[in-house]
Design a protein that fits this description.
Helix content: over 70%
Shape: elongated
Distance between the termini: 44 Å
Largest sheet: none
Number of helices: 12
Radius of gyration: 32 Å
Length: about 240
């Protein structure tokens, strides 16, 4: 067979293939891969957005703490909102509580008791919820920082405005008395650091659990791709 005959045969085969493809498109028939791929993509997107079940999320939220990696990440953590937001709450509460007459109000006592007095669960939990790494480490740091804020309030604040049996006054006076004893101060610092570590670790676990239970939000690129796939599928009908 000559070259011209071979070329004519190939051209005829291509022409028949184009005609067959055009007829399939007019009938609405799609190749298997083209018909399955959009459905598979939609199913995959739905499974990625559905989240995990309670048991799977509960089991997956536990894990070994990467202590060395978290320690290496500490300089970066100290530049994030997980550090600055709780620190701002401590600074503001300490500054306000040292003002004349603030401790005599129920709001001032509640703020000092919730934010500054050990164990500083609220601040440690807040720091742990705002970060995905080193929640236990930030919790321990804020346990010590809140203890320092309580010492400042106990030393400068107007404790005479409180009754002698008031629990806030008792805590503050006890902290100031322990600060004059090296052994008692060391014990207090150890206690607030450990309690802060546990509070931060619990917050980190709880945050992982919530993220596992919650459906993943698709990105803008995924949304555009899904819309394009749906429009393409509708135009083929």
């Amino acid at each position: 067979m000559s070259k011209s005959t071979n070329a004519e045969a190939r051209a005829e085969a291509r022409r028949r293939s184009r005609i067959a493809a055009k007829e399939r498109a007019e009938r609405g028939d799609e190749p298997r891969e083209a018909a399955v791929t959009p459905a598979a993509q939609i199913a995959t997107g739905q499974s990625a957005q559905s989240g995990l079940g309670f048991r799977a999320a509960f089991r997956g939220s536990f894990g070994v703490a990467p202590i060395r990696d978290d320690l290496r990440q500490l300089p970066r953590l100290l530049r994030t909102r997980a550090f600055f937001v709780p620190l701002a709450a401590i600074v503001v509460t300490t500054a306000v509580a040292t003002q004349q007459g603030v401790l005599s109000t129920s709001v001032g006592q509640l703020a000092v008791q919730s934010i500054l007095l050990p164990p500083a669960f609220v601040i440690a939990f807040l720091a742990g919820m705002l970060t995905r790494r080193g929640s236990w480490l930030l919790g321990g740091i804020f346990g010590v920082i809140t203890y320092g804020g309580a010492l400042l309030v106990g030393s400068v604040g107007d404790l005479s405005a409180l009754d002698a049996t008031n629990p806030v006054r008792a805590f503050l006076e006890q902290n100031v008395a322990h600060a004059k004893d090296g052994g008692a101060l060391a014990g207090d610092l150890y206690g607030v650091a450990v309690s802060g570590i546990f509070a931060g670790a619990f917050a980190g676990w709880y945050g992982r659990f919530l993220r596992s239970m919650s459906p993943a939000r698709p990105s803008s690129r995924d949304l555009r791709r899904r819309d394009a796939t749906q429009r393409k599928g509708g135009s083929r009908r």
